[in-house]
Specification:
Shape: globular
Radius of gyration: 17 Å
Number of helices: 2
Strand content: 15-25%
Order of helices and strands: EEHEEH
Number of strands: 4
Largest sheet: 2 strands, antiparallel
Distance between the termini: 43 Å
Length: about 110
């Protein structure tokens, strides 16, 4: 899904476990956000069939820009990692709120 959404000049790589990084040369935050949304949609549109169970993966994506103020690649990865965890927390809170609203509505109908 990731390779389908990046340019030939980009560098997708597995960082470890279920974490990946994509280097987008000569790309500002706005363009990186467009690529990130495309990757996120491609992953969400993927279905993995395991026996009778259909799995639908999700992604949380963090973006970091490397410029003259970035001390090194490790600092950029750390910045992207922090942004990814912030996105993950935001999604979790959003999902929790949605579940609470559904539960509340269901309880009112009982």
């Amino acid at each position: 899904a990731i390779k389908q959404r990046v340019r030939a000049t980009d560098y997708p790589a597995r960082v470890g476990g279920d974490e990946f990084a994509v280097l987008l040369p000569h790309t500002d935050n706005g363009k990186a956000a467009v690529v990130a949304r495309g990757v996120e949609r491609a992953i969400a549109d993927t279905t993995i069939q395991v026996g009778a169970t259909a799995l639908h993966p999700r992604a949380s994506i963090g973006i970091a820009t490397i410029d003259e103020s970035t001390p090194d690649a490790e600092a950029a990865l750390l910045q992207a990692d922090r942004a990814m965890y912030a996105a993950k927390r935001h999604k979790k809170a959003k999902n929790t709120t949605t579940k609470a609203e559904r539960t509340s509505t269901a309880n009112q109908d009982d």
